[in-house]
Amino acid sequence: MQNLSPATVIGLFALLVLFALSGLLWLSHWLGGYRSQWDKEQPYECGIPPTGDARARMPVRFYVVAVSFLIFDIEAAFLFIWAVTYWELGAQGVIGACVFIMILLFGLIYEWRKGGLAWTPDKTTRGL
Question: What is the mean pLDDT of residues 9-15?
Fold first, then answer.
């Protein structure tokens, strides 16, 4: 195996994993079986019979908070990468990171002023 290229080794490993995965899936299907029953098909609601429609409308405010969380979570990932390569980047990297943080800070202030972080509607803010 020492004469093989790395791409060949990776390809052989991928084939081995694919073969093992398909074999295990086939084995679980063959051994497991499935018997459909009315109780098994019902959604689990902690012993309470389900009522109403599961597709209830959610206020936009929840989506705004979720997107804000994703944006600032990605910011943390970028800043972690910047912190790891701090010494290689030099002054240009520090200035770039500061500009990045300032842009996100202005976005956070804008969202805060518009009321995007408030859970209850406020009469003094417009928007969301």
Answer: 95
Provide φ and ψ at 68, rounded to 5°: -60, -40
The pair of three-digit structure tokens given for residue 72, joined into one six-digit string: 């600032």
Q: Which residues contact 43 (CB under 8 A, 6 or more apart)?
A: 50, 54
Reported as a pLDDT band with limits 50, 70 and 90, residue 122 is: low
Q: What is the four-CA torsion angle of 114, 118, 122, 126, rounded to 10 degrees?
A: 20
Q: Are 102 and 90 in contact (CB under 8 A)?
A: no
- Is-contact 98 86, C-beta < 8 A? no
Q: Residues 81-117: pLDDT tens digits?
A: 888 988 898 899 899 999 999 999 998 899 888 887 7
- Residue 20, SS3 per DSSP: helix
Map residue 43 onto helix, strand or coil.
coil
- Please check whether residue 94 is in contact with residue 83, taking contact to mean a CB–CB distance below 8 angstroms: no
pTM: 0.48
- CA distance linking residue 24 with residue 66, whole number of Å: 37
